[in-house]
Design brief:
The protein has about 500 residues and is of the alpha+beta class. The strands form 4 sheets. Strands 2-7-6-5-4 form a 5-stranded mixed sheet. A 5-stranded antiparallel sheet has the order 9-8-12-11-10, covered by helices on one side. A 5-stranded mixed sheet has the order 14-15-13-16-17. Helix 13 packs across helix 14. The chain is elongated. The two termini are about 75 Å apart.
């Protein structure tokens, strides 16, 4: 935003006179500066009204022509030439060069001090800045009302209309979520890529005298909802940037509404779920709450336990996965595990959620799923899920372990019990393992078959593919090496548990 030359010429007290390029009087002055150097170009940034008395102006016409040409090339908006000191009139070569280059040339009479021109420009710039603030203060309430009644699309439209620009709201993947005018296209991907500053700044701008693109992140705290993009065929103004920032805040708050509501609902659901797992909520009340939340309970409920990593982060990510499947999040943290409630018929959902979470960089996750239960069996479902998750971790299994599949192996899922059983396995079964290794026998496998078939000789020998007399001989040898009585139920139970632990050690 600058001061139009036409406005400056309209100030009668300055008594300025246009000598060239009258068609360029809409040019805007960003600064007025007096300078008497023979070559002022190194001190010029563009947009200036350069004021000079020609004190160091070369005498040769060619040199004067080059002086003017260099000023035009450097982006000077206009040249103000003071007469009555070094030169009684503006040199003809200067006038000719200004006409040729299209540079407005203003004659400044002797009674007009350069300081008066500079002061007029600065005061007008200050007035424009104040007018911009007033304009923005009038537009911002309209944008706020638009957000209340029409959401993001209404905010985008109000911003576009108020600034006379095109505005788009882009999501994380660059898809247009709102735009005005409706048929406006997003800037080319390479333009947007250039506006992504390496330090992750919230705003970036690409602006020139005839076009501009500004990008503002739509975010609340660490959560980014997308980008608001303003595109115009003119230079961007401070008011544009001010209103863009306000619009981005309004769109961010609009995007936060469902997320904040969901977060609050998840908090309430988590409190309910903890009561369900503790068995402190009656089944009818539980059924009413789940039904109102849109949680299907026709097939009962399951509990999914996720062990590994940060359980709070796992709960948040799992909530997003469940939301995509139309399920509300009922989750909490128990024994360093993220624990989720799932419908009884959603075993595949448990695997899908686990797979998505395990695919995150650096994720180490083990999952256990309970069997289906009625609503009053929450504590039982929790114990099953935690036991299954412990079994998954012990086995290093990336698949969801179903508690139903752990029949006969539940004791091995508890670390303390597992340690005891492994110790018994090493003590009890080492003699058989050593004998098999030294003699090529199969005493361990034969003992397992004998015990798993409840001492039934025919069934056990058939499973091994040997004669029952062969199996009897092997069991006599095993009984001798172990120094135990295989007719004792207690001995058989202890050896079967030891064999289960031995199998896990082999894995």
């Amino acid at each position: 935003m600058g001061v139009p030359l036409r406005w400056l010429l309209g100030r009668p007290e300055l008594r300025l006179r246009v000598l060239t390029a009258r068609e360029q009087l809409n040019r805007e002055v960003l600064w007025a500066h007096s300078i008497e150097l023979a070559d002022p170009v190194p001190w010029i940034s563009g947009g200036e009204l350069l004021l000079t008395t020609g004190l160091r102006l070369p005498a040769e016409a060619d040199a004067q022509h080059k002086y003017v040409q260099r000023l035009a090339d450097a982006g000077v908006v206009a040249l103000g030439f003071g007469v009555g000191l070094s030169h009684e009139v503006v040199p003809a070569a200067v006038v000719a060069a200004a006409e040729e280059t299209g540079l407005p040339l203003l004659e400044v009479p002797l009674p007009t001090p350069f300081a008066a021109i500079t002061k007029a420009v600065m005061e007008r710039l200050a007035e424009q800045q104040y007018e911009g603030v007033v304009q923005a203060s009038r537009i911002q309430p309209r944008m706020t009302r638009a957000a209340l009644h029409g959401g993001a699309q209404a905010v985008v439209r109000e911003l576009a209309v108020s600034t006379g620009t095109a505005v788009l709201f882009l999501d994380h993947e660059g898809r247009t979520r709102a735009a005005h005018p409706a048929d406006v296209s997003a800037p080319a991907p390479d333009v947007l890529a250039d506006l992504r500053t390496p330090d992750g700044a919230a705003a970036a701008v690409s602006s020139g005298p005839e076009a501009g693109v500004a990008v503002q992140q739509v975010r609340v705290g660490p959560r980014v909802h997308g980008r608001l993009v303003l595109v115009t065929d003119r230079a961007l103004t401070p008011v544009d940037h001010l209103l863009l920032g306000h619009a981005a805040s309004l769109v961010a708050l609009e995007a936060e509404k469902p997320l904040r509501l969901r977060d609050e609902q998840n908090r309430v659901n988590g409190l309910f779920f903890r009561m369900l797992l503790d068995g402190s909520i009656p089944a009818p009340a539980a059924l009413g709450h789940l039904s109102e939340a849109g949680f299907p309970v026709r097939d009962g409920v399951r509990v999914l336990a996720l062990r590994g990593g940060n359980p709070r982060q796992a709960l948040e990510a799992a909530g997003e996965q469940l939301s995509e499947r139309g399920l509300p999040l009922f989750g909490t943290v128990r024994e360093q595990c993220a624990v989720l409630l799932l419908p009884g018929g959603h075993a595949m959902t448990a695997q899908a959620v686990t797979d998505r979470l395990a695919a995150r960089p650096g994720a180490r996750l083990w999952a256990g799923l309970s069997s289906p239960h009625d609503l009053e069996d929450g504590p039982t479902a929790l114990r099953e899920a935690l036991s299954a998750a412990s079994a998954a971790q012990a086995r290093g299994c990336r698949e969801v372990i179903h508690f139903d599949a752990l029949a006969g192996h539940v004791l091995l899922t508890t670390p303390g019990t597992r340690t005891v059983l492994e110790s018994i396995a090493r003590t009890r079964l080492a003699p058989l393992a050593a004998h098999d290794a030294a003699n090529g026998t199969e005493l361990l496998a034969s003992l397992r078959a004998f015990l798993e078939h409840n001492g039934q000789w025919e069934a056990a020998s058939a499973s091994l593919g040997v004669h029952r007399h062969t199996l009897r001989n092997r069991m006599d040898r095993a009984q001798s090496l172990l120094g135990v009585d295989l007719d004792s139920a207690h001995v058989r139970a202890e050896l079967l548990l030891a064999l289960s632990a031995w199998q896990e050690l082999d894995r």
